[in-house]
Design a protein that fits this description.
heterodimer; A: 109 residues; mainly beta; 6-stranded mixed beta sheet; 58% strand; B: 114 residues; 7-stranded mixed beta sheet
Chain lengths: 109, 114
């Protein structure tokens, strides 16, 4: 069935270091969305990618959709303590979105 | 701010009981999706309602049922509660299936089954 994997499960970085999380699907995606969930909070929509090879930037965040539309990445440049949380990708299969298990980011000041 | 509203915020139930969770979608949204999020896990899709009908369903037993009202609000019902049903239940609203702007999540209902 439709399955979305994310790596790494956890990432601890020093403030100022970069961070990348990767999302992979077992089958081709129609689109992909990224969410951030702060500790004790709820997922908050960050961005949606639709086109093969698409790259979008939001300040220090760079999102990429693979050419084969089976993988995606989120890269954060120069992390800050406010970046702490769990980052989820949600793979779009038609009108159904399947969430990955998330990558939990810790940023040490 | 007319975001997604869920009630109650916390709930404690006993095994075998039934529970109803409620969700009011963001203003302008017409689709409601329900997710179960266990501690340390990603949200698991339960079902989605659009035009008062269940449009899609995840891998959850029939004990989980729902409803959408004409004003787009929704309820999630769980019968014969099990200890494993303890989780954060998230409601997410969107315009159609969330294809054009993602889902807006509520703060969730924390259900504890004892």
């Amino acid at each position: 069935g439709q399955q979305v994997m994310q790596i790494p499960q956890y990432q601890h970085v020093q403030e100022g270091e970069d961070f990348t999380t990767y999302c992979n699907s077992s089958t081709t995606l129609s689109n992909i969305q990224w969410y951030k969930q702060r500790p004790g909070g709820h997922p908050v929509f960050l961005i949606q990618l639709v086109k093969s090879g698409e790259v979008k930037k939001q300040k220090r965040l760079t999102f990429q959709f693979g050419e084969a539309k089976k993988n995606s990445s989120l890269h954060i440049t120069a992390t800050q303590t406010t970046d702490v949380g769990t980052y989820f990708c949600a793979g779009g299969y038609g009108q159904n979105f399947v969430f990955g298990p998330g990558t939990r980011l810790s940023v040490l000041p | 701010d007319a975001g997604v509203t869920q009630s109650p915020t916390h709930l404690i139930k006993t095994r075998g009981q039934q529970v109803t969770l409620r969700c009011s979608p963001k203003s302008g949204h017409d689709t409601v999706s329900w997710y179960q999020q266990a501690l340390g896990q990603g949200p698991q899709f339960i079902f989605q309602y659009y035009e008062e009908e269940e449009r899609q369903r995840g891998n959850f037993p029939d004990r989980f049922s729902g409803h959408q009202f004409p004003n787009y609000s929704s309820e999630l019902n769980v019968n014969a509660l099990l200890l494993g049903d303890s989780a954060l239940y998230l409601c997410a609203s969107s315009l159609r299936a969330g294809l054009n702007g993602g889902y807006t999540f509520g703060s969730g209902t924390r259900l504890t089954v004892v």
